[in-house]
Amino acid sequence: MKSDKSEVLKEFRTLPGVGKVIAEDLWNLGVRSKLELAKLDPEKLYEEICEYQGTKVDLCMLYVFRCAVYVSATPDPEPEKMKWWFWKDKQLV
User: Fold this and answer.
1) Which of 13, 14, 34, 57 is 20 to 30 Å apart from 72, CA to CA?
2) 35 and 14 in contact (C-beta within 8 Å)?
3) What is the structure's pLDDT at 5?
4) pTM for the predicted model, two decimal places
């Protein structure tokens, strides 16, 4: 398992929607690889980041987590699903 922080953060930044700040957030939540991320529940990650930051984080973070978990878990991800906004909650009309 990777444990060199700079290498792990660099790996996370290859995921759609994940930049320096979100990569650091994943690290702070204890995630150490994309392989590990692939096995996690994005809803739980969102709850954990809200708790970690002591506030309700913007829902865009949840959408990025959903996308990142999907891409990490999927060998050949669909291009449309590699956009974080694909993972937004559907509006009820």
Assistant:
1) 57
2) no
3) 96
4) 0.91
